[in-house]
TGF-beta family profile domain-containing protein (Octopus bimaculoides), 299 residues
Amino acid sequence: FPREHEESKLDQANDDNNNNNNNNNNNNNNNNPNLVFAMKIQHPKDPLMETIIRSAKLHIYKRGGKTDASNESSSFDSLMEVNVYHVTAESNTSETKRTLVDTKIIDFSESGWVIFNIQQALQNWLDGPTKKDGLLRLQLSSKACTKDLHRIFQVNRLMKRSLRDQEPRLNVKTSERLILGRVKRDIHTGDCEKGDGETQCCRFSLKIDFKELSWDDWVIAPTSFNAYYCEGDCGSSRLANDWALVKNLIHQANPEKMPVGVCCVPNEYKGLTLLHYNNDGQLTLSEKQNMVVQDCRCR
C-alpha cells in the first residue's frame, strides 16, 4: 500500500534568464518569468517499488493592478490567459524545449494566490533524464508584456524580507507503490502517441476545438483544449486498485464467473477554466468540472 507524504518546502525559486532557446526559437520567451525549484524527491531503495506523484500544486502570488498590455493583446481588460511551461533540455543540443503544463485565466486587477496543477510535469521530471541536476524548471507566459508578468507575479527570490511569505511555493504529495508493470511514455509529455508501438493502457492526446462542439458562440477563451482519452490493453499493468487486480485475475481464471474484464478508462480528471457568457449574457469566469483526463488506469 502507498506510503504518502507531503513535501511543501521550496528550496529555490528565482528569475532565471539564462535560457537562450526554446522549441519555437522565440527570443521573446527568454524574458518571461522563470522558476527554478531544487527538488529532493528520491526513488525508493527497493527496486520493486516506484515513486508516484499524487499531487503537485504550484502557488504563485499575484499583485493586482493595471497592465500595460494593449487592447490587441488583452481583449477583456484585466482578464488574461497565463500559461505554465515545463522547460527541458533537448538531447545532445544546447537548446531547450517548452511543454505546456497548465493554463489559467486570471483577473490581474485583484491580488491573491494562483494555483497551477503541475502533477504530470513533475512526474515526467522524476522519470526522465532532466532530474540529474535536481532542478525543476518552469516558465510563465502570457499575451501580457513581460514586464507586466514580472511585476504582477512574485517570482524573485531576492525580494524584501517583508514579502518572503509571498514567494512561489510548490506543494507536492508522493507515495510509493509496487511496480505492476511499466508503460512506455514520451519523457516530455508522459503520454503515448499513435504509431509508437505501445499497446498497453495509456493516455493519448485529443485536441478539441469549441467550434466542433458548437460552443464557440458562448465560450470566449480558451478556443480549444486537450481533453485526452484512454486506450490500450489491460494485462497486469496500470491497474487502478486492488479490486481491479482481483477482478482481472478472476476474469482470466474463470470468464464465466467474471465475464467482463478490466478496461482502460479515465481514472482522474481535472476541470477547465472558461471565460464565457452566462445565461444573462454577462461575461464571467468559471470552471467546468471533469473536462480533461489526467490519468488512465485499468479498472
